[in-house]
Structures are given as structure tokens and as C-alpha cells.
Amino acid sequence: MDSFKSGQMVVYPGQGVGIIEGHEQKEIVGQKQSFYILRILDNDVQIMVPTNNTDRVGLRKLIDKKEIRKIFTILRTKSNGLDNSTWNRRYRDYLSRLKTGLLHDVAAVTRDLYHRSKEKELSYGERKMLENAKSLLITELLYVSERPEKDIEERIERALEKA
Predict the structure, then answer these.
(1) Euclidean distance between the first and final Cα of the chain, in Å?
(2) 3-class secondary structure, 146
(3) Model-level pTM?
């Protein structure tokens, strides 16, 4: 179980980058529980995460700057070949990878859906998933690299085009 501090930036799977605003204790069903108060930066939503449940929900620290190169390597590599499976199997696989919250998985989903969109039109659900995955990727890279969003978007597009 990771321990997080107030003011620390973290990633909440499926929601994106947030900041720990504090800790709070609440009584639930007669038992005191401790929570992190997390504010998602993209949409200003506040989430309470039980401090003893951070591993299960996938709350994690931002990637290290050294990991950025690996993320772009994933974006530049060829897809994993899920294209021959049925749409609902692909969708479930993409969704399960996004739920891990790991940026490597988010990058792989972005890459796979992007290349699929170049071959044939994506379903509405797949288009929304691509937008969401790309947004999660951009947001974390934005805070880790401290570069302008436009630069990150362009770099991602160039990497995807190279695969």
C-alpha cells in the first residue's frame, strides 16, 4: 500500500491526474476509516479513496520522467494483433487495460485504437475510448514532462504515425 501526502500528484485509473488535498476520517457502519481526499485536475471532481484500498483501486504516483521514453516507444511499436477478434472482445480487453491505470497500458490502447481507426471506422464506443485514453496519456505526460500540451499532442501524433 502506497502512502500519499497532501499536495502530491497521483493518478486515479480512468479519471486521470489528481492531487491529494488531504486526509479525512469518517465513521462508516460503526467503524472509523481513513480516506485520501483527491481532486481530479481535468474536471475538478473530488474523490474519497480509502487509504487501505489504494492498491486495489490502482491509485499510483505519476510515472518518473525516465519512463517517458518507454511510453513513446510503445506508441511507435506495431499493434498487438487484437484486430481479428470480435469488437466486444477487443472492447473488453481495451477497457481492462485502461482500468489498470498504468500509463504503459493506456499508451498501448491509444496506439491500438489509433491504428485501427486508420484501417476502418471505429464504433462510437471505440472512438470515445480512444479519446479518453489519449486524454489520460496527454494529461499525465503534461504534468511529468512539464511541457506545453500542444507539444505533447504533436509528439504523440508523430509517434503514432511512425508505427
Answers:
(1) 36
(2) coil
(3) 0.88
